[in-house]
Design brief:
α1 crosses α4. The protein has four helices and five strands, in the order βαββαβαβα. By secondary structure, it is an alpha/beta fold. The chain starts with 17 loop residues before the first strand and ends in a 10-residue tail after the last helix. The chain is about 35% helix and about 10% strand. The mean pLDDT is about 90. A five-stranded parallel β-sheet has the order 2-1-3-4-5, sandwiched between helices. The longest helix has 16 residues.
Length: about 150
């Protein structure tokens, strides 16, 4: 009898946390999906980055509110940290001013994912969150997140 091979592992490799700022429908969906795939999630509801957003090595940081008062400081700190993924929810045009501000300050934004997520085409909070978590997982495995079919 041939042993069946499974296409999955019983438990995912432990990865960093997913830190999400701030609390809104997309953030709550990111928390639900990321938790389902085995990630520890912290949603910080304070628009100013709050006391709980202390980035650790291997964390993923997702800014779900580009209009948060402390968005530049949150991104500045996350991009300077040992986070493996830093992203912001915003269209390229909406984020342009904030990105330009960071570049003018000398911040390296080359690793900033904006807009956050893979291009799945979804518009609902859960669909957007799925694209963000998929991008976090792809990044953590050094993958592009493209289709698997040849």
């Amino acid at each position: 009898m041939t042993e069946r091979q499974q296409a999955w592992i019983p438990e995912p490799v432990q990865r960093g946390r997913v830190l999400v700022l701030s609390d809104n429908p997309i953030a709550r969906c990111i928390a639900a999906i990321a938790s389902t795939v085995g990630r520890t999630v912290l949603v910080e509801s304070a628009d100013d980055g709050g006391p709980g957003l202390h980035v650790q090595q291997g964390d993923a940081v997702v800014l779900c509110d580009h209009d948060a008062p402390d968005a530049p400081a949150v991104l500045r700190a996350a991009l300077a940290s040992e986070a493996v993924y830093v992203a912001m929810m915003a269209s390229r045009s909406r984020a342009a001013g904030l990105v330009e501000e960071l570049v003018a300050e000398g911040v390296d934004v080359s690793t900033l994912h904006v807009p956050a997520g893979l291009d799945l085409g979804g518009k609902a909070p859960g669909e957007i969150a799925l694209s963000v978590v998929a991008e976090i997982v792809a990044e953590s495995y050094g993958r592009s997140g493209g289709a698997m079919r040849g």
